[in-house]
Design a protein that fits this description.
292 residues; mainly alpha; 13 helices
């Protein structure tokens, strides 16, 4: 039976370093919608993760233990393969903000897993803060003109469930691999899972210009290699609920980038929702840190 080890003592910079990952991921929506060739979600996901995983695996040259492959494959499917595929489906079919709102339920999913499986009831303050985060996200992004496209909504919700399960299981299992090795193998295996979808479901890529090549390179090197290294480092040091809550910074970043880069409007109500989300993230971090 697997025992859940307590995370090592975390300092404030561990929270900041981990927060950098969802901030980077928040740029995925604007890069996808503005720079990538349209209607190729699985190709975008494959190009994002596979080269990054290959680079890390070749640089580390460390094989997982014999008994770790099954769990590693499941983590790769949850954290990378399924999540990235669903993320890009949602990014192509929904406004970036709406896709992110639906992903805001991740902290609640992690709390539910910890409660039902581990027997760890969530702190009331953290639970209320996580619920406030979902509410704040809805206030921030949902409007009467929002289009709830069924496939995109389903993809966003399933993607949130995959990421929540992946965060919880990664912390629970703690595979005997360094962060770079764990990240590399998950990206590599997840990329291999995406390859058949990219070949069968997407149209071939057209001739790419400089900006499109740069966008794919950014998604790979920053959005996968760097961000996932920081993310899995955070999972090893912080409580899963705290990590999942930091994921709310991804939609906040998407909204801010849309406001700054695309000149999208920011109403007073949306601004209040932004404040609620940020307050929710801070309260969850503070509550989980005190409970340790």
């Amino acid at each position: 039976m697997n025992m859940i080890a307590s995370p090592p003592p975390a300092r404030w910079h561990d929270y900041l370093i981990t927060a950098a990952a969802p901030v980077i991921w928040g740029s995925t929506y604007i890069v996808t919608s503005e720079l990538l060739p349209p209607d190729r979600p699985f190709t975008a996901a494959f190009i994002r993760v596979f080269p990054a995983g290959l680079l890390l695996v070749l640089s580390q040259r460390q094989l997982p233990g014999r008994g770790q492959w099954r769990r590693l494959a499941l983590l790769a499917a949850l954290n990378i393969g399924a999540f990235q595929a669903l993320l890009f489906v949602a990014a192509y079919r929904l406004p970036g903000g709406l896709a992110a709102v639906l992903g805001a339920i991740q902290p609640l999913m992690v709390m539910a897993l910890a409660w039902r499986v581990d027997g760890r009831s969530p702190a009331r303050t953290a639970l209320l803060a996580a619920m406030a985060g979902v509410l704040g996200m809805a206030v921030l992004l949902v409007s009467p003109r929002t289009v709830f496209e069924p496939v995109g909504v389903s993809a966003a919700l399933l993607g949130a469930a995959c990421m929540a399960s992946g965060v919880w299981l990664t912390r629970r299992w703690q595979l005997a691999l360094p962060v770079l090795g764990l990240t590399g193998w998950q990206l590599l295996l997840g990329g291999l899972m995406l390859l058949p979808l990219a070949c069968l479901a997407d149209a071939p890529l057209p001739a790419l210009g400089f900006l499109q090549l740069a966008a794919y390179a950014y998604l790979c090197l920053a959005g996968a290699l760097l961000a996932y290294v920081l993310w899995f480092r955070g999972i090893a040091r912080l409580p899963p609920v705290a990590v999942a809550s930091l994921g709310l910074l991804s939609p906040v970043t998407a909204v801010v980038l849309g406001w700054v880069v695309l000149a999208q409007s920011m109403t007073a109500m949306a601004l209040s929702g932004l404040v609620i989300v940020l307050a929710s993230v801070l309260v969850v971090q503070w509550t989980t840190a005190r409970s340790r």
